[in-house]
Amino acid sequence: METIITHSGQFPSTRLRRPRLQDWSRRLVREHLLTPADLIWPVFVREGDGKPEAVETLPGVFRHSIADLAREAKQAYDLGIPAIAIFPRIDQADKDEDGTTARNPDNLVCRAVRAVRDAVPEIGIITDVALDPFTTHGHDGVIRDGMVANDETVAILTEQALVQAQAGASIIAPSDMMDGRIGAIRKMLDAHGHDNVLIMSYAAKYASAFYGPFRDAVGAGKTAGNVGKDTYQMDPANSDEAMREIELDIQEGADFVMVKPGMPYLDIIQRASQRFNVPVFAYQVSGEYAMIEAAAAAGGLDRDRIIAEALMSFRRAGCRGILTYHAKEMAQRLND
Question: What is the mean pLDDT of each run of 10 residues along the chain (336 residues)?
């Protein structure tokens, strides 16, 4: 290190602490910023009326009626959150082996989309394309001969995506991880005049244990026989494979790509953001949220600071946007 000699001895000529000494200088040289516009709020919708239902494994997260969801969406928009992502809790009576209700243009998701679109025309509405909330077995696709059938599932997913677009969805977000579904959905949307509807592909979705509380929230925790989700979601040991998945989805027409989970896969986010010229998003999933809340409740960390620090880590890694259950709370804090 270059040094200078003074009457007091040797000192470094470069002092990286200097810009850190004052609040104004720290703000002046800050490399990344977090704003409400960087946040997407995942929300759960259920059938019926009444008060929001608490999700036991996600403190502070609720399943909302459609009317309540529309009001929550208006609040989110007023806080500067550009989009919400809707996930349904489907009644057991509306589930079957093939997730037939997913293709019904009057299903819970489509009715919720229409209600939010009427209440808040300007907000972005993201809808999940996958069969797990709609199937009795909880898989993202149909089961044939003891396996998740890729091509038959893709055909169903394209119909699911179409009814969501017709209801008013802004962004179709396939989270199923079937091969070829982005191209098939893009073709279906374009053929029916929905060429301006965006696709956010869950391009690198890992077979993760961090999804547990989410599956509780949507009631999709079961699996069919010995078929595991690791037969279609990615192996947590692989990173080069994620680049192949992302590249294929971009070639098939994805406008945005997503990495899921978030913080355990910051290396994947960074690689993708540096390699591909498309916006990369991340989902701070239910398990990540639950761990922060549990540690804070136990008094083990400063809750407000850890939430902000965790979200900033996504921006630093290269995320354009972050799906987080802390979105509404964080937007309020940023506005204040």
Answer: 54 89 94 97 96 95 98 98 98 96 98 98 98 94 94 98 98 98 98 98 96 90 65 97 98 98 98 97 97 95 97 97 98 96
Output the pLDDT for position 221.
67
Distance CA 25, CA 76 (A): 32
Cβ(268)–Cβ(305) below 8 Å: no
Secondary structure of residue 193 in the 3-state scheme: coil
Closest CA relative to residue 292, chosen from 282, 302, 283: 302
Query: What whole-number distance in Å separates Cα of residue 307 and Cα of residue 288?
Result: 10
Phi and psi angles of residue 233, each rounded to the nearest 5 degrees, phi first: -85, 160
* CA atoms of 136 and 90, how far apart (whole Å): 10
Is position 150 within any domain? Answer: yes
**Local structure of 281: helix, strand or coil:** strand
Number of H helices, E strands in the chain: 11, 14
* CATH number of the domain bearing residue 208: 3.20.20.70
CA–CA gap between residue 55 and residue 57 (Å, rounded): 6
Cβ burial 272-296 (10 Å sphere, 16+ → b, else e): bbeebebebbbbbbbbbbbebbeeb
Reported pTM: 0.94
Rounded Cα gap, residues 223 and 226, in angstroms: 8
- 92-96 contact pairs (CB < 8 A, 24+): 92/136, 92/219, 94/134, 95/134, 95/135, 95/136, 96/134, 96/135, 96/136
Give the domain range for residue 153: 32-335
Domain assignment present for residue 137? The answer is: yes
Distance in angstroms (rounded) separating the CA atoms of residues 54 and 59: 7
Of 315, 167, 182, the closest CA to residue 257 belongs to 182
Catalytic residues: 205, 260
- 11: in domain: no
Residue 18 lies in a domain: no
* Alpha carbon distances (Å) from 318 to 173, 193, 205, 231, 279: 20, 33, 17, 29, 9
Provide the domain count of the chain.
Answer: 1
